[in-house]
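for the record, two folds in this file. i put them one after another cuz i was lazy. first one right below, seq on top, structure tokens after. the second one comes after a little note so u can tell where it starts
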Amino acid sequence: ETLRQSVIPRAVLIDMEPKVINIVYINNRHSTVVRQSGAGNNWAHGFYGFGTVVAKDILECTRTYAENIAKRPNFLTFSSLAGGTGSGLSSKILEHLRDNYPKSPITTNTVFPYQISEINT
């Protein structure tokens, strides 16, 4: 079995503002979790607010992928230091991933915000 045959990347796209997901949307609506309002650059709102509301939906998308692979799932996450979705919600989701997949490797990547952005104006 070649590497190309054994490795199939899968992605769950998550954002509480649909504009970002709509830009990268690739006919895979079942693997996206979006809402109509953001976390307002508030870590606590992302962690305690959205984190408790959407965690079930996110874990359902993840479970669907994990059940269809023969090996233990590996997770690679990208999140932002700014805002409530990127920092607060992603922190909550990482907790849930660790609880639900205790033996799976989880690699996290943090993205710094632009020097000039919505939060700096």
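(here's the note) second protein begins now
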Amino acid sequence: MKTVLTIAGTDPTGGAGAQADLKTFMAHKVYGMSIITALVAQNTLGVKDIMNVTPEFLKEQFQCVFEDIYPDAIKIGMVSETQLIHQIVEQLKKYQAKNIVVDPVMVSTSGSRLLADQALTALKEELILIADIITPNIPEAEVLVDHTITCQEDMILAAKEIRQWYHGDILIKGGHFEDRSDDLLYHGDDVIWLKSEHINNPNTHGTGCTLSSAIAANLAMGDDMVTSVQKAKAYITGALKDGLDLGQGSGPLNHCWNL
């Protein structure tokens, strides 16, 4: 069985973070593991509080995973402090990790800020640079390029700007547009559009976590990058169409809709 590791914060209601990642791994029939960066008190209505782990404890988690069950792919989600980013980069280089998917989590679906200002520099200059692919949504891509994105041409421009300092693949997700949910995959210098109609479902809690985890699962199973992203897009589309309705706010997806 292929193995996939998530490095992320938690969600006690199970819709986002490490819990969502582990469900996504199981739906793809890969063995899921998790390194926790922070305990996050959150639900479908928002984030109440965040308690980060220490860099030392984070390092111990890395040792437990990599020196026992080596992962075939890695998804990195919420990391809110600079010192934790330093530790993750150091450990991934030490263990020569492969198939790294970075979801640059900055703001939750409910609008809560999840990244300290000083950690943004470390995210851009350290963590993103070791990724094979990054998966920002529109607001996150706007932070990375420091200007607004209002149309597909802006998405292409943003990808080209990010390419100037980052040489992996770039997936800019278009789900924040109201008419379409087309995603842009910037693969090398190729512009690949992953087209999808906008699904009328207000329950989108954890969609970013889930999509990036699905990409990692597909990479672990040996698919190339473009195929991995295409399969992940189909998976997240199916999860949204499933129409699960839980919680008082923006509810979670049915991660196991395909089983």
